[in-house]
Amino acid sequence: MKYTCKKCGESRFFYVTVSVAAKQRIDLKEGSRHGIVYDIEPENIDGFYEDVIYCGKCDEQVDMEEWEEYQF
Question: Which of 5, 9, 15, 35 shows a CA-CA span of 20 to 30 A to 25?
Answer without folding.
Answer: 15
